[in-house]
Amino acid sequence: MKLFDIEGPLKSDNESMFPGLSYKERLMGFAFCFFMGYFIQFLSFGSLIGLLAGSPTKFAVSYSVGNLLSIFGTCFLTGFRKQLQNMIDPTRRITSAIFVSSFIMIFVSAFLIKSKLLVLIFLITEFCSYTWYVASYIPFARDCIRSCLKNIIKS
User: Fold this and answer.
1) Inter-helix orientation angle 57-72/93-107, to 10°
2) CB-side neighbour CA atoms (13 Å) of 91
3) Eight-class DSSP state of 10
């Protein structure tokens, strides 16, 4: 496959969630989910005042749904099976478990326990684990984050 080949991989390599779609169509599906997920996350900051006023549920739910939608977009490219294999890869296993757990616990804390403090704690945990998970796909990103955090702590 050439660099930036819009035709994509061979048909037999297509293990995506939507194998009937062309590579270009799957890229468009991925882009739509990815950008809509981040758009929903951006819109969730409109509820930030509620978060600061002690009502984090609306912000946490919309932010989490945005996260889920952006991750779902990868299923257009790789499929659920490959995404799950990536998530249980040794370099991402712990981060994935923390992300999924915090995602579930946000909803449990918001709707069953009704604890604003727990929602906030799990929201911060979800943000950190999601950032660390995404950084695992970018060469040297985790090293860069570690270095920045070390410098911040030293200051």
Assistant:
1) 140
2) 11
3) -
24 Cβ contact partners less than 8 Å away, ≥ 6 residues apart = 6, 7, 8
Instruction: For the chain, give percent helix, strand, coil, nearest 5.
Output: 75, 0, 25
Helix 141-154 with 116-135: angle, nearest 10 deg: 130
How far is it, in rounded angstroms, from Cα 57 to Cα 138?
31
Give the pLDDT band of residue 80 (cuts 50, 70, 90).
confident
Length of the chain: 155
Give Cα 104 distance to the centre of its chain. 13
pTM: predicted TM-score of the whole model, two decimal places: 0.77
Q: Using one digit for the tens of pLDDT, what is the confidence trace for 101-145?
A: 999 999 999 889 988 889 889 989 999 998 898 888 888 999 999
Please give the Cα distance from 26 to 51 (Å, whole number).
Answer: 36
